[in-house]
Amino acid sequence: MDGFVLTHVFEPVKVFDQEDVDGFLPPYEPVHYLTPEKPVVFGSGTDDANTMEFHYMNHQAVLRARDKIEAVAREFETTFGSIMAV
């Protein structure tokens, strides 16, 4: 199903000026990144003893992020206008 949707559905895309995007976003400075010199693992699982605690902590983080996500969405709309007006 995803193959059909991804290959047969299209919609308009609004592309913003790079200078405006750079002014809106903070500089990109990744904390973790992949390099051959310092290999790391992203998204690894957890053992059975900690799985529920991990899911609980993840859920709490998502709930705490709600207000920040809404505030940034309002700031984005103020800066770039409604994304629905394509």
How large is the count of helical segments? 3
Averaging pLDDT over every residue, what do you get? 86
Uncertain parts: none
Strand content: under 5%
String of helices and strands: HHH
What's the total count of β strands? 0
Shape: extended
Structural class: mainly alpha
Radius of gyration: 19 Å
Distance between the termini: 27 Å
The largest pleated sheet is described as:
none
Helix share bin? 40-55%
Characteristic key phrases:
3 helices, mainly alpha, 86 residues
Question: What does this 3D model show about the protein?
Answer:
It is a single chain. By secondary structure, this protein is mostly helical. The protein has helices at residues 2-8, 18-24, 51-80. The two termini are 27 Å apart.
What's the SSE blueprint?
Blueprint: H1 2-8, H2 18-24, H3 51-80
Summarize the structure.
This protein is an all-alpha fold and 86 residues long. It is built from three helices and no strands.
